[in-house]
Amino acid sequence: MAPARRNWHKADWGTFNNYIQSTGLDLTNLQGEADTLRAVSNITTIIHKATDIAVPISTSRRPEAPWWNHSLTLAKRSVKRADKHVRLQPSTVTRADSQTKHHHWTKVVRAAKAAYRIKQLQSATMRSIWKTLHHHNTHHRPISPLERQTDFQAKCDILRNALFPVVNGSPLQSFPNNFLSSKLDLYQQTQPVSIREVQHAIAHLEFGTSVRPDGFSYTTLRHLHEATPRTLSLLFHSCLLHSVHPLEWKVANCVVIPKPGKSTYTLLKSYRPISLQSCFRKLLESIVAKHLTHAALRCGATHLSQMAAQPENSAVDALLRTITPSSKAISTKKTSKTEPVPCPAVLTHDIEGAFNQVHPLTLREVMHQRRLPTYLTDWVTAFNTDRKITFGFDQQSEKPQSYRCSLPQGSPVSPIIFLIFSNAMLEKQDYPADAIDTSYVDDVCTVQMSQSIAEANTLLEERTEQHLNCGQHLGLTFAPSKSELLYCLQLNSKHKNISLTSHPPLQVMNTTIIPKRQIKYLGIYIDESLSFLHHASMAASQANRVLGSFNFLRYRSRGVPAHIAHHLAFTAILPTIFWASPAWWTGTPTMTSSLKITYNAIARWITGLPCYPSSPNSSLSDSFPRWKRIWTTYLFDSPSDYTSYLDTMLLASHVWIKQLAKTFQVSIISMPSASI
Q: Is the full-model pTM beyond 0.85?
């Protein structure tokens, strides 16, 4: 029998808050691990009791379609009455009346579905647009036999071994004493968890997600914090102070969902695991991540060259740190004929295994030698042990099973822990201007400035060998098959016409890394002249694929209204083209010409005109010189800040589309008014 489901939409949160306040929660005198665990159990019990009072149980009835409304109910009753009259008093009049009401019923149902669809699309964001467009109930599909195993438990074991491999296949080596140093000794320092920290962490949670294994959602925690603001801050501070991470918070429910559109479902890669974890756990880990980030920067456990999981940096910053010095080097003009031409070399690596290669005992020793706060080191040790997972699919669920895995994927604290661990491998004693290292989680990029390719290769090999020697003590290494090499050359360089195989070889782990004309780093194609023409063409191709997936929504003037197509273009298509544009946009005519056809196709799709006319270079705005000037300025001259372009489009598109409708005789469905 399926468990009872709660109707969270009808929750009385006022009653919930009143019950929480009436219990008189007081956590000011928690002493030790036992008191903290008892407090966790008591708070969980109180929340469940408050939920029983404030959130009703859903009645077992046929689920109502989300697009249904009261007018459809009345229309359905009218159709049933007309059909009854036909059965009781068959005549031409009653049949005609029944047919009319059936036609009306079909019309209002289609209108209700279209209105609901438009409302969904209009409120879609960059993160939810694809979920809104491609909704598949693949979780109802049974799991096919895996490795010829049909038994449920055997499938669970196969999935567990594939998704969570054993930590470090090689034996654990002893970590040398005094291998690492610290800038600042924070060993005895503690930082309390404030109410403001909890409030900030709650504000950044993903509300609207499904109920977690502990029986409530993030909305429940938000109302708990509103009812008693000090409860969560005192509880989390006690968890950190006494190194408590309760066992019930370490259990995750893993739902295995088949990926739509796969040709076969007998392979493990055809399934996507989704892990549902405790709300308390996610909230606490997001707070610990902030504490670890701040402490690691102060004591030197992480470096500013390590992007992600640190404040005020992103993948774009990692790209700029890689591209900017190389661009300056190859754009420097020679002052004499005898002056050598600079040759920046870019070598990228991928740390093999990443999160799965972090051994808990080695991690503890790294944090200890870095003199990180003891309370954080002890809590991370508790966080990394005794985790369990339960798989659920085929309408079945197994009992929680222990599994050996280092850092869990999806945890807010895992990225910063990996940066602390990997920094012991990537750390350098000095940071010369001609040797630039940048990492983004497990993607490492090394830039070497030199006067010749042979010299660059020698220096890159030495730096890579240093990283690998340090990584041996940690169980970390690079994946040679994923390493890529690029030589940045001036446009008129004589080396551009030389075959890449004629360059001196670069050896990494007894593997020869062959240079390429362009490499892909953090989603951006970097070419040897840093013109980014190849990336622009790839971005245009990706935008065309996205636009093609939207064609079923709008054809000429039929389909979704123009302002919805306008919103979808801003939400899904333009971000695809201009992602990380501050790092690669040059604004050259050659680059803009590669985007022009895609640019016009998007504009034509919004207005209902043919996306690809007979003359591919014909601009949509040729008939409107003023609009063409606005459009070109905001799209092509400053796409790095294309938000300004989008804002201008939002204001001017309504007048422009009305002009297009008159000129090209296109019928535009009703649009919201706008003041220009």
A: no
